[in-house]
Design brief:
The protein has 198 residues and is of the alpha/beta class. It has one domain: archaeoglobus fulgidus dsm 4304 fold (2-Layer Sandwich), CATH 3.30.2170. It has helices at residues 47-58, 73-76, 81-88, 104-110, 113-124, 154-160, 169-185, and strands spanning 6-15, 18-26, 32-41, 63-69, 77-78, 92-96, 130-134, 137-144. It has a seven-stranded mixed sheet, sandwiched between helices. Helix 1 (47-58) packs parallel to helix 3 (81-88) and helix 4 (104-110) runs antiparallel to helix 5. The model is unreliable at 188-195 (pLDDT under 50).
């Protein structure tokens, strides 16, 4: 992959009722080339809109891929990869770093009725998690919007943006920015992340 290829990484840090989303544009050689901020509601259903907003605020055509840290942002605000990929017309990859039995049981424990149905519909339509070895580390990836067989695979993209260690640079840097923004705006400690978000 060319060294100048750009990916937008989006991560979150949340306190109380709002989750602070940070988007950082990064190249495979670790050049940071842009930052945007947005938000979504803790326990809500607007994480997809928040991610799309983070992308659109940059108003750039040179971003090739979007990485998102997890799929259950802001306490089960389930992220719809396919809807986001369609809205921004770019491949979207969700990356996590721990094995997981999935979210269905947790969703059923915390939600009922229409709130549960809405989240389950998004969750059940997601692509399967793919375990990828990256520099000797396991990275779990879901993706949407990748060209079947005609473009780079999820594994190729993730490895290209992970020059060392096991965390893709777009996600690693955006998480640092999200935590700094949240720390600057509120004093409460961050909540413990769910395994499939971490």
């Amino acid at each position: 992959m060319k060294s100048g290829t750009r990916a937008l990484g989006i991560a979150e840090s949340y306190r109380e009722e709002r989750s602070h989303l940070a988007g950082v544009v990064v190249t495979p050689d670790r050049t940071v080339d842009g930052v945007s901020l947005s938000s979504c509601t803790v326990g809500g259903t607007d994480s997809t809109a928040g991610v799309v907003d983070c992308y659109r605020r940059l108003d750039r055509d040179d971003i090739r891929y979007v990485f998102v840290s997890g799929i259950a942002l802001a306490w089960y605000n389930v992220f719809d990869l396919s809807a986001a990929a369609k809205a921004i017309d770019r491949p979207v990859l969700s990356v996590t770093f721990e094995s997981s039995e999935g979210l269905e049981r947790s969703l059923r424990e915390h939600f009922t009725g229409g709130d549960l149905d809405e989240r389950l519909a998004i969750y059940e339509a997601l692509s399967p998690r793919e375990r990828i070895d990256v520099n000797g580390h396991d990275v779990y990836v879901r993706s949407a919007g990748l060209s079947d067989g005609t473009g780079p695979s999820a594994a190729t993209i993730v490895r290209a943006f992970t020059p060392e260690g096991g965390r893709p640079e777009p996600v690693r840097v955006s998480r640092l920015v999200a935590r700094a923004v949240a720390d600057d705006r509120e004093d409460d400690p961050p909540t413990t992340p769910d395994p499939e978000r971490s």
